[in-house]
From TrEMBL, chain A:
InterPro entries, alphabetized: PhnH-like_sp, Phosphonate_metab_PhnH
Entry superkingdom: Bacteria
GO BP annotations listed: organic phosphonate metabolic process
Organism of provenance: Thalassovita taeanensis
Record-given protein name: Alpha-D-ribose 1-methylphosphonate 5-triphosphate synthase subunit PhnH
Automatic annotation (TrEMBL), chain B:
GO BP terms: organic phosphonate metabolic process
Xref: Pfam families: PhnI
UniProt protein name: Alpha-D-ribose 1-methylphosphonate 5-triphosphate synthase subunit PhnI
Automatic annotation (TrEMBL), chain C:
NCBIfam families in the cross-refs: PhnG_redo
Protein name per UniProt: Alpha-D-ribose 1-methylphosphonate 5-triphosphate synthase subunit PhnG
Alphabetized Pfam families for the sequence: PhnG (PF06754)
InterPro entries tied to this protein: Phosphonate_metab_PhnG
GO biological process: organic phosphonate metabolic process; organic phosphonate transport
C-alpha cells in the first residue's frame, strides 16, 4: 500500500465524522441546500467533499463501486485503509463513487424492494458545477421550491418516478456537496 | 399500547443510588476488583463472554461486577457495549485442530492417539463442599510432567479414514451473521451454530437433555471434548496479508451419533458440533446435541415433532437477552393497556349480571 | 506482529519503558477500539460460521525523526489498550529501521521467551493430568 493511501483521513474522527454526518444529513433532508465540508484531504481525483462522504458513510459492511477514473489504485487503497469498505460492482454496491457521466445510466444499481426500499444504492456523483441555480426542485424537505444546478434531469426524473424505490444522490464539487433523494421532483426551467 | 409516563425522576435516581450501595455490600468487606473476578470467577466470566458474544475477559468481569453477579444482566451489558464497536472485519477460520489443549478427552476411544488429558476439571471431584476454601491459604503448585508441545489430531479424523463418519468438507460459503441481519428462517447450519453458541446455557442444556430423554433421541457419544487456546488471524488490508491478532480460549465438542442411513447414504456415524468461547464444556456438549437434533432435515431423518428438532422453537427462544427483554417488559407501566382491559371486564360483567338477573326474573 | 498482538499490555508497556531510543511519530490513524468477528469451522473441518466477536485495537503511525523519517508502523492488537497498540505500531516501524536489532532484543525476545515459558508451563501441567483408562473385562454371568 502506498504511503499516500494512509494520509488524508480524519485527524479527529469522532468530532469530524459527526460534523460531516450532520452536513450529509442536512443536505439530504433539505434538497437544494449546499453544504461545505473540509476535514479530509483525499487523493486526486477524489474531491474533498466526496472524500469526506466516503470517510463518513462507508464501512466494512458497505460495498462500494468506483466508476471511471475514480477506480484507480490511489483511491481504492485510500478507501480500503480509511473505511474498510470492500470494492464491489455496481449491482451489489451500497455506495457508488464517480463522475456523473461514469455513474449513469442508473439501471443496474440496487433500488430496494417494496418491503425494504432502503436496500438501495446511494450514488456520490462528482459534478463540475454545483450552485443554487438551474433546475427547480420540490418535494419533502423543501419549502415551496428550491433550485440546484443538476448535470441532467431526465435520469433523475426517471429515478423519482420509481418512488418509493430508486437510488439517492449526493452531488459533490470541490469541498461542496448537495443531496438529492429519490423523493425530490425536478423540473427543468 | 404504550404511553409515555412522566415523573418519578427523583425516585429513579434514589433507586439507582441504593442499587450502587447494595452492589458494594457491607463496607467493612473489601471491594472486589475486576482482576479478582476475572481470575477467580473465570467460568462466570466465560459464560458472559460466550452469551455476550464478545471475547474480552476484563469487560466480562466488569459487567459481572456491575450486574451484582446477575449473569444475564451482565450478558445484556456486554451485548449493549458490543453494538458500539466498529467492526474491523471477519477473521480467518479458527483452526481447532491446532489448538493448544489443556484438556482433551474422548468417551469413544480410550486409547485416543495423543492421549486423554483431564485438565483442570470438576469431573472427578466428590462435590463435597471444601471448607478449607472458606479460609485464605497458600496453594501448592499443580504437578507437572514432560510437556507435549504442538497440535493433537481430532479424534473423529480416525473414523474419517475408514469413511465411518460423515465428512465435514470445507467450503467458501459466506455465513450469515445474526449480528447484522435479523434471524430469518429457514436457517442454515452456520446460522444455527451462531445462534446456539451465544444462546442461553440453561436453555441449550434443557433442549439437549430433552433429546437424551427421548424427545428426538440421537444417541450421542462425546467423540472428543477439547479445551485450549487458538490463534486468531485476520487479513489486514494495509498490509496485504493476514496476521495473528490475538488468541481465544475455546471449548470444542464433537459428538458421534448413530445414523442408520437413508435412501442416499449408507449407514455411518454423523456428527454434532459445539464450539464456545472460554472453558464452557456443559454448553459445548449441549450445543453439539442440539446441533445434531436440528440436522434431521439435511440428513434425511424423520421429524418426530420433538422440540429440539424444531428450528423455529429452538432458535427463537435460545437468546436470553431477547427472552428477558420481552419477559421483563411486562412489569413496566402498562396503565392504559390495563385500563382498557378493566373497562372491558366491567362491561362484560355488567352485561352478564344483567342477563342473569333477567333469567332469574 | 503476532507476538505484539498477544503480549500482555503490562509486560509490553514495561519492556517499552525500558527501551531508550523512542522515536518521534505522527498518527496516520489514531488508536481505535473495535471488534473482529471470529469465525469457526462447522464440525471442526467444514465451512465457516460466526462464533462471536473479540475486541481489537488498531492504529497506524509514521516515524518523523531523521534517518527513520517516513517509516510506517501498523498495529492490530487484542483487547482495548490504546497504549499497547501505540507501542506495537512503534515496534513494527522500528523493525524496518537500523534499530531493528536493538528493539528485537529489548522487546520482542523477552516477550517470545516469556510466551514460550507460559505455554510450556501450561503444557507440563496438562501432561501431568494425562490419563490411561483401562477397560475392565466384564465377568461372564
Amino acid at each position: 500500500m502506498q504511503v499516500s493511501a494512509l494520509e488524508g483521513g480524519f485527524s479527529d474522527a469522532p468530532v469530524q465524522a459527526a460534523r460531516a454526518f450532520r452536513a450529509a444529513m442536512s443536505a439530504m433532508a433539505r434538497p437544494g441546500t449546499i453544504e461545505t465540508v473540509t476535514d479530509a484531504t483525499p487523493p486526486a481525483p477524489l474531491s474533498v467533499a466526496a472524500g469526506v462522504l466516503a470517510l463518513t458513510l462507508l464501512d466494512p459492511e458497505t460495498p462500494v463501486y468506483l466508476a471511471g477514473a475514480l477506480d484507480c489504485p490511489q483511491v481504492r487503497e485510500w478507501i480500503t485503509f480509511h473505511t474498510g469498505a470492500p470494492i464491489a460492482g455496481r449491482s451489489t454496491c451500497a455506495f457508488a463513487l464517480g463522475r456523473w457521466a461514469d455513474l449513469v445510466p442508473l439501471p443496474g444499481y440496487r433500488i430496494g424492494t417494496s418491503s425494504y426500499p432502503d436496500r438501495s444504492a446511494t450514488l456520490i456523483a462528482e459534478v463540475d458545477l454545483l450552485e443554487p441555480s438551474g433546475t427547480t426542485l420540490s418535494g419533502p424537505g423543501i419549502m415551496g421550491v428550491s433550485v440546484l444546478s443538476l448535470p441532467e434531469t431526465e435520469t433523475i426524473q426517471a429515478n423519482h418516478a420509481q418512488f418509493p424505490l430508486g437510488v439517492d444522490f449526493f452531488l459533490t464539487c470541490g469541498d461542496r456537496l448537495a443531496g438529492l433523494p429519490r423523493s425530490t421532483k425536478v423540473e427543468a426551467l | 399500547m404504550y404511553v409515555a409516563v412522566k415523573g418519578g425522576e427523583k425516585a429513579i435516581d434514589a433507586a439507582h443510588a441504593w442499587l450502587a450501595e447494595r452492589r458494594r455490600g457491607a463496607k467493612e468487606v473489601p471491594e472486589l476488583s475486576i482482576a479478582q473476578i476475572r481470575e477467580q470467577m473465570t467460568l462466570a466470566v466465560n459464560r458472559v463472554m460466550a452469551e455476550g458474544s464478545l471475547f474480552d475477559p476484563d469487560l466480562a468481569a466488569l459487567a459481572i461486577k456491575q450486574a451484582r453477579g446477575d449473569l444475564i444482566e451482565a450478558v445484556f451489558l456486554i451485548r449493549a457495549y458490543r453494538t458500539t464497536l466498529p467492526r474491523f472485519g471477519y477473521t480467518l477460520l479458527v483452526e481447532t485442530a491446532k489448538m493448544d489443549c489443556i484438556r482433551r478427552i474422548s468417551a469413544t476411544f480410550k486409547d485416543a492417539p495423543g492421549g486423554q488429558v483431564l485438565g483442570p476439571t470438576f469431573d472427578y471431584t466428590h462435590r463435597l463442599l471444601d471448607f478449607k476454601l472458606a479460609a485464605e491459604g497458600s496453594l501448592p503448585d499443580a504437578p507437572k510432567a514432560e510437556p507435549h508441545i504442538g497440535p493433537v489430531p481430532h479424534i473423529t479424523e480416525f473414523l474419517n479414514k475408514e469413511d465411518l463418519i460423515q465428512q465435514e468438507p470445507a467450503n467458501d460459503k459466506e455465513p450469515r451473521d445474526l449480528t447484522r441481519e435479523p434471524l430469518d428462517l429457514p436457517a442454515d447450519r452456520a446460522l444455527r451454530l451462531q445462534s446456539l453458541t451465544r444462546g442461553d446455557e440453561g436453555f441449550v442444556l434443557g433442549m439437549a437433555y430433552s433429546t437424551q430423554r427421548g424427545y428426538g433421541r440421537n444417541h450421542a457419544f462425546v467423540g472428543e471434548l477439547r479445551i485450549g487456546t487458538c490463534a486468531v488471524e485476520m487479513e489486514i488490508p494495509e498490509l496485504g496479508f493476514a496476521i495473528e491478532i490475538g488468541e481465544v480460549e475455546l471449548t470444542e465438542c464433537e459428538t458421534v451419533n448413530q445414523f442408520t442411513g437413508s435412501k442416499t447414504e449408507p449407514p455411518q456415524f454423523t456428527r454434532g458440533y459445539g464450539l464456545v468461547f472460554g472453558q464452557t464444556e456443559r454448553k459445548a456438549i449441549s450445543m453439539a446435541l442440539v446441533d445434531r437434533a436440528l440436522r434431521w432435515k439435511e440428513l434425511g431423518e424423520e421429524n418426530v415433532g420433538a422440540p429440539a428438532q424444531d428450528e423455529e422453537f429452538v432458535l427463537y427462544h435460545a437468546d436470553n437477552i431477547q427472552a428477558t427483554g420481552f419477559l421483563e417488559h411486562i412489569k413496566l407501566p402498562h396503565y392504559v393497556d390495563f385500563q382498557s382491559e378493566l373497562e372491558l371486564v366491567r362491561k362484560m360483567r355488567a352485561e352478564a349480571m344483567g342477563t342473569m338477573q333477567e333469567a332469574a326474573e | 506482529m503476532s507476538l505484539l498482538a498477544k503480549a500482555p499490555a503490562i509486560r509490553l508497556t514495561a519492556l517499552w519503558a525500558a527501551f531508550d531510543a523512542k522515536p518521534a511519530f505522527d498518527w496516520l490513524r489514531a488508536p481505535e477500539v473495535g471488534g473482529a468477528m471470529v469465525r469457526g469451522r462447522m464440525g471442526g473441518t467444514g465451512g465457516a460460521f460466526n462464533l462471536g466477536e473479540m475486541t481489537v485495537t488498531r492504529c497506524s503511525l509514521r516515524l518523523t525523526d531523521g534517518a527513520e523519517n517516513g517509516v510506517i508502523g501498523h498495529a492490530y492488537v487484542q483487547g482495548r489498550d490504546k497504549t499497547k497498540a501505540e507501542i506495537a505500531a512503534l515496534v513494527d516501524a522500528l523493525m524496518q529501521t537500523p534499530s531493528a536489532n536493538a528493539v528485537k532484543s529489548a522487546v520482542l525476545e523477552p516477550l517470545l521467551t516469556e510466551g514460550k515459558a507460559a505455554k510450556t508451563d501450561r503444557a507440563a501441567k496438562a501432561a501431568a493430568t494425562k490419563v490411561e483408562f483401562f477397560t475392565m473385562v466384564r465377568g461372564e454371568d
